[in-house]
Known about the structure:
alpha/beta
Amino acid sequence: MNIFLIGGTGLLGCDAARMFIEQGHKVKSIALPPVPEGVELPEGMELTFGSYLDFSDDDYREFFKDCDCFIFAAGIDDCVELPPPIYDEYVKYNIKPIDSH
Length: 101
């Protein structure tokens, strides 16, 4: 299976990518640079650096080309330190990207 994963360097995305690759699947991912300290990327994951908010529709058409599965494992969580109030940031990074397409 060909998998497109947003957030392949994060806690969930990196482990998911590793598991899929070990099972024989092909994984391509986009993620913010740099790779977090201490993270060992799975060998064989095709990685493009950039913010999922900044790619164009044409970029996404190319990312999704020949993909059988899509996983969204990006966004911000309680590990991200932002000045309060942070509700708008949660909406911007966690809700709007998957709600507008």
